[in-house]
């Protein structure tokens, strides 16, 4: 893939999103950064501008379909997009507490609908130009259902499979779709995890890996590399055994 000159990132005010914004920040590159937290987003934009980028921060909720369509169209009109990263995501479940119905619906709204609201408006633009790259932020949680966060697992599984199928559908049209599958990355979201997170990476290191893999046009990639086999194994273990291994005490 060609190094992108115009990049759009959702969930850009913190965690992997802000790390990606900083990783892509360089002179003459346009960054369109979206998030619901306008204050944090403004600080990220300031950092990216100091690194030479032309940053455009936009307060937007990925669950708002019309707002997302308008924002992405406006961004593309300002500087034709080369790369769109559907990064925004939330999780509520952990070992300490069970998800409520409202939390479950919120997770699906942000992680699934929010991803669709990011990908679908960009897709026609890329297909018309016969170039462009879409990156979807999956998760190791999406390879199997785990009892501490079933909605998060299911939402990430859905966008993973969506990305796999979409890549095969549009690749011949010059459009690339990549699914990113991180394991444990140090972010505000993972701070709530009440269990060990071996080989956990910092957000900046995760962003460096993602940027490198996207340039290689990897259809799907798991990182850290130690989890590549674990991802396959988790999907291959019979349900009866997996239920025993992941039972809650």
TrEMBL record:
User: Which Pfam families does UniProt cross-reference here?
Assistant: adh_short (PF00106)
Segments crossing the lipid bilayer? 225-245
Instruction: Print the keywords alphabetically.
Output: Membrane, Oxidoreductase, Transmembrane, Transmembrane helix
GO molecular function list: oxidoreductase activity
List the record's Gene Ontology CC terms alphabetically. Answer: membrane
Q: Which InterPro entries match?
A: NAD(P)-bd_dom_sf, Sc_DH/Rdtase_CS, SDR_fam
Q: Which SUPFAM superfamilies match?
A: NAD(P)-binding Rossmann-fold domains
Q: Which PROSITE patterns match?
A: ADH_SHORT
Oxidoreductase listed as a keyword: yes
This protein's source sits in the domain of life called Bacteria
Which family, according to the similarity comment? Belongs to the short-chain dehydrogenases/reductases (SDR) family.
| Name assigned to this protein | SDR family NAD(P)-dependent oxidoreductase
According to its UniProt entry, this protein's organism is Desulfomonile tiedjei
